[in-house]
Specification:
2 domains; 26-stranded antiparallel beta barrel; Immunoglobulin-like; globular; CarboxyPept-like_regulatory; seven-stranded mixed sheet; about 850 residues; Maltoporin, Chain A; TonB-dependent receptor
Length: about 850
């Protein structure tokens, strides 16, 4: 269409088309002050026609022929703009750039040594100021960087939350599975690390989703060639591990193959990875209905089990296709076999004098597979298109033997799950001034579960000592989301309209009694609109006001209902001098009961719990008011980073349960109760001492929740409190071959029930001392000693852990190493663990895998 129009103009008005005009571009800020050295780019059909920077008066002059041009104007510290102009005569064109008030200002940390450099939306870390040669993997380096941390799964944390991506030279690497990079890439392969606080991925079009990414920049000597290492180790207590890494990092992408087999309870996949694979995490999730996913227990983020064997293989491929297109493919497969042994003391919370003990032995097999594909295409500077798909089948089987009050019970549970999801995304510019983003997503789930119970006594008050339950839940979702954004001087307006369709179907049957068969279907269709207004009042103060409306049609068991929800939200942001920001947020959100909360017949939840027909209305609206206050600060002098947040939530008509105790089992009935309240506080403080070679990281977390449940239809107030304090002191001696760290953790958890005056307070004190060192370039070693003092409220326990790792570089390619884990407990030992739900409080003594000593060899090329 555009080419035909140009052809007509050329044939009818050739002189007009090629006449030249002197065009003056003027660039000013919101106060009409001229901006010098602003970059001005003029292009046609993706070809750059002219380029230059403004003078001291904010002007730049160019000779242009008649026609249409795309003008892009950029200046550091200001929001870039792109506009389409039409040149027909000599004129002066004025453009206004708005300050990036929500971005970090240009600051260079002036303390010595310089650790951080903050420029725009990028924080660059000077690794030479923190790396001392004792680090092994890249996670050892990240732990030392101000504002960043690594959790026990290898995930990178910023402001206490997991970041979106870890990149290698700007390219994706196993999606959100950070540990594939942090726990496999050697520290000496990386020369720099950048934290991108406004990462929008491969898209060049404006309006893309902003996220946070950590970019690892590899050294030139590791680029454009295969980097491989193979590791094998074996030792006492049936300890064995084989691990291999194969990487190739090139300018246009990367290839990686990671494999692992071990008998020492290591699992490369975390709970978050599993959930993200099931819902296709690449899709914007802000407008989707909440989706409940049952996570396999083999993904528990600790090694506190009696025995575990795990096999894993992962593949990642990222590559540019031409200059404007990119593909990413990843596949992971994991299989685990675990053995658990727990000695449990269980208390009926509604009957505090009713306690019983039982021994639980469990053998489980789990397999998980995920394939993900993404194609991204920058059609032009204004248009971006992408397609992503994910396929995740997995199968799990638990076999448990339970010895309880003289009754031996066998409990088998197996799951076979299938999930497929895909999404198309388009970002472009409409009518020259409106940024548009459209997303169409479709997903399908098929989850099948079998439960088999074999007992010496009749089960659940019935006449059967053997029960078999089959269950099948299918879910289909389709979402079509549209976002329109327009910026006018100091105002940014956004309008969203979303079409959502959700269909759930649950079939369950207890084979011994066909009358207990259930086939229910829940279907919801909704139209959502969301208007948002962002206002930059001045260089310091910013506000965001939003209003969301949802019109919902809901069908359940032949009954239909239609209703509308109204949800306002407000954000107030104040930027103090320097890098200090205070933010207040308020939002109102409405939820609807899920299908699992609306079940209409008996469903076996586990060997001792059965769910009865619910009393929850399918169209019950559950309002939730949320308030939060956040403060973020970076002090250039002290090199300190502070982040704190306090939030308060009130949920009305919340969903809970009524517990009915029987002689050897319980019944749970879904109910709707009054308000549930919670308050959460988090404070993170990183400090690099100026005159001492130490850095300190402090984390404080507090959570208090108050809600209601029922026991035999009598109201019960449930209160839980959690407090965590972590203090880390890490040395950074210059030119020293020895470093050390001290880590103190305190965890306290309080559970209270008003109906029976039940209260339990558990505490855990942990002190860890780590010493690491090196001897020139041949030897690296680290030793860790941990004292863990536990008090479950029922029992006390004290554990001592001693771990050690030694690496010796025999030749350029060969490395010998020794791993010692839990060396003070080479025989089986136990730890204390408390769990609670609406019906039971359980204090367990859990068997831990015995410690081990391993010798191994590593070959790299």
């Amino acid at each position: 269409m555009q080419l035909n129009f140009k052809l007509i103009v050329f044939l009818l008005f050739p002189v007009f088309l090629f006449s030249q005009h002197t065009i003056r571009f003027k660039v000013v800020d919101e106060a009409s002050i001229p901006l010098a050295r602003a970059i001005v780019i003029m292009s046609q059909d993706d070809n750059q026609i002219a380029f230059g920077t403004t003078d001291a008066n904010g002007f730049i002059q160019k000779e242009l022929v008649s026609g249409s041009y795309i003008v892009t104007i950029k200046k550091l510290g200001f929001v870039p703009i792109t506009e389409v102009i039409s040149i027909t005569k000599e004129e002066v064109l004025s453009f206004t750039l708005l300050p990036e008030t929500n971005q970090l200002k240009n600051v260079i940390i002036t303390s010595r040594p310089k650790v951080m450099k903050v420029k725009g939306d990028t924080i660059s870390y000077n690794l030479k100021a923190v790396v001392d040669g004792t680090e092994n993997k890249i996670e050892d380096v990240i732990k030392k960087l101000p504002g960043l941390d690594i959790d026990q799964d290898g995930k990178v944390l910023y402001k206490g939350q997991q970041i979106d991506n870890v990149l290698i030279d700007g390219n994706e690497f196993f999606g959100n599975k950070h540990q594939m990079a942090t726990q496999n890439i050697n520290a000496d392969m990386i020369e720099g690390i950048d934290l991108l606080t406004s990462y929008s991925g491969f898209a060049t079009a404006s309006g893309s989703k902003k996220g946070i990414a950590l970019n690892l920049k590899t050294k030139d000597s590791y680029k454009n060639k295969w980097i491989m290492d193979f590791e094998a180790a074996a030792g006492i207590n049936n300890s064995f591990r084989f691990h291999s890494n194969s990487f190739k990092f090139f300018k246009k992408g990367n290839v990686a193959v990671i494999s692992d087999y071990n008998t020492i309870a290591k699992t490369p996949i975390s709970r978050e990875d599993y959930n993200e694979m099931r819902i296709l995490a690449d899709v914007d999730s802000e407008n989707r209905e909440f989706k409940s996913i049952e996570t396999p227990t083999f993904l528990n983020p600790n090694a506190f089990i009696k025995d575990k064997k795990n096999a894993f293989i992962g593949l990642n491929y990222t590559s540019l296709i031409g200059k404007r297109s990119k593909i990413t493919f990843s596949n992971v497969f994991n299989k685990a076999i675990i053995t658990e042994e727990n000695d449990k003391l269980q208390t009926n919370v509604g009957q505090p004098q009713s306690r019983f003990s039982f021994l639980e032995n469990k053998v489980a097999t789990y397999s998980l597979n995920n394939s993900a594909f993404k194609w991204e295409f920058n059609k032009s500077k204004n248009t971006f298109i992408s397609y992503a798909a994910g396929f995740t089948p997995n199968a799990d089987k638990d076999v448990q033997d339970l010895l309880r009050s003289g009754n031996v019970l066998n409990y088998t549970k197996s799951d076979a799950n299938f999930n497929f999801a895909h999404v198309v995304k388009v970002q472009t510019t409409l009518l020259k001034t409106i940024n548009y983003k459209g997303t169409a997503q479709h997903s399908a789930d098929d989850n099948r579960q079998k439960v088999d119970l074999f007992s010496q006594q009749n089960l659940f008050g019935g006449t059967f000592d053997t029960i078999h339950q089959n269950q099948n839940q299918r879910q289909a979702n389709f979402n079509f989301n549209n976002v329109f954004t327009r910026t006018l001087k100091t105002n940014n307006f956004s309008f969203k309209i979303n079409l959502l369709s959700q269909q759930d179907r649950l079939r369950t049957v207890i084979l011994e009694n066909q009358n207990n068969g259930l086939d229910v279907k829940l279907q919801r269709k909704s139209i959502q609109t969301n208007f948002s207004w962002l206002k930059n009042w001045d260089a310091k103060f910013q506000s965001i006001l939003g209003f969301k409306t949802s019109a919902v049609n809901s069908w359940f068991q032949g009954t239909q209902n239609a209703f509308t929800r109204y949800e306002p939200n407000l954000s107030l942001i104040y930027n103090f001098k320097g890098l200090n920001k205070l933010t207040f947020n308020y939002s109102l959100d409405h939820q609807l009961p899920s299908l699992s909360q609306l079940q209409q017949t008996d469903i076996i939840l586990d060997f001792q719990t059965i769910s009865k027909a619910t009393s929850i209305d399918y169209n019950r609206i559950i309002p939730k008011n949320s308030f939060s206050l956040q403060y973020f600060s970076v002090n250039p002098r002290s090199q300190s980073v502070l982040y704190s947040t306090v939030s308060y939530d009130v949920e009305q008509n919340s969903v809970s349960s009524n517990t009915i105790y029987n002689s050897d089992y319980i019944e749970n009935v879904g109910i709707t109760t009054r308000n549930r309240k919670s308050i959460k506080a988090l404070a993170l403080y990183d400090l690099k001492l100026n005159h001492l070679p130490f850095s300190i990281k402090t984390t404080l977390f507090y959570l208090k929740s108050i809600g209601l449940s029922q026991f035999n239809s009598v109201d019960n107030e449930v209160e839980t409190q959690n407090f965590t304090n972590r203090l880390q002191l890490v040395s950074n001696f210059r030119k020293s071959h020895v470093q050390f760290g001290i880590d103190y953790n305190f965890i306290q958890r309080i559970v209270m029930q008003s109906a029976t005056n039940f209260i339990n307070t558990s505490q855990n004190h942990q002190i860890a001392l780590s010493i690491r060192g090196k001897s020139k370039t041949k030897l690296k070693w680290d030793i860790g000693f941990v004292i863990n003092d536990q008090d479950s409220g029922f029992d006390t326990n004290q554990l001592f852990f001693l771990n050690a790792n030694v690496q010796y570089m025999a030749t350029k390619n060969w490395k010998l190493f020794f791993n010692g884990n839990n060396m003070l407990n080479l025989n089986q030992t136990t730890l204390l663990l408390n769990t609670t739900n609406a019906s039971f409080f359980t204090a367990s003594r859990v068997s831990i895998r015995p410690g081990y000593l391993m010798l191994g060899v590593n070959y790299s090329l």
